[in-house]
Amino acid sequence: MQKNWKRTVSLLFTKLVVKTFALVPFWWLYVISDFLSFAMRHLACYRKKIILQNLRNAFPEKIDAEISRLASAYYRHLADLVLESLKGLTLKKTQLQERYVYRNPEIFSPLFEKGESAILLGSHIGNWEWGVLSFPLSVRHTVFGVYKPLKNSYLDNYLNSHRKQWGLYLASMSQAGRAVTQQKGKPTIFVLIADQTPSDIKNAHWVNFLNQETPFLNGMDKLARQTGYPVFYFEIKRVGRGRYEVFFSPLCEAKETFTEGEITRRFAAALEHTIQENPANWLWSHRRWKRANRKEQPTYYK
Q: pTM of the entire structure?
């Protein structure tokens, strides 16, 4: 009973915040964001040690002043991301399409014409939440987002109702295989945010990523090998506050033969290149390497 009460309060608070930011114009949104960024960095010191340590480990060649500038830029990005994500839930379709532009969605057209499906891999770069909302508007394929549900089922259902408003279908990680089976023969794009820390470390794929031994989810690699679907990578580039461009590129062809871990390695290489181009736009406050020190010997993909 107490747990349900807490879930209800969390849901009501989220609804209130979302409705409030629906009324806030973008110019004022970024005034609030500047204050939030300052508060997170200098008042709350939000995950300061984690952010600085992650940046130092990823970029050992940078001096302290450069790391500090990157941390400052990251806090600004994080504040923008939080408020933009709230604002995005109530944006009109035309507003979202004008601010979140897909530059080469036609890359999927030949597949659709042949009735073929694909796997699309992305990461916590830029504003991925706006991508969740708008991607189904840019392609003719049916789009399934594979995601990790929130512990608060009330809040999870509320957010998902917004995410699905323009045609997105959702499947939890445990339901991904079933979704693939149900969509067999129907041109579908399965989207995975693939840079999350895996809970199953024993079966994770370990890759040298950003100068560190890093575990990656094995699901993307397994799904690609089982289905034989072509795999694509999407890169989100921030071109201004509240304005993004998205580019797609192939990681492997349909029915391409590759060994276990190859797709993971290709994804990690593409993501590392994206991060190095604009480091502040990745999620540095995430404990990405919290389980990198382990006793058992991992399967390691160079």
A: 0.93
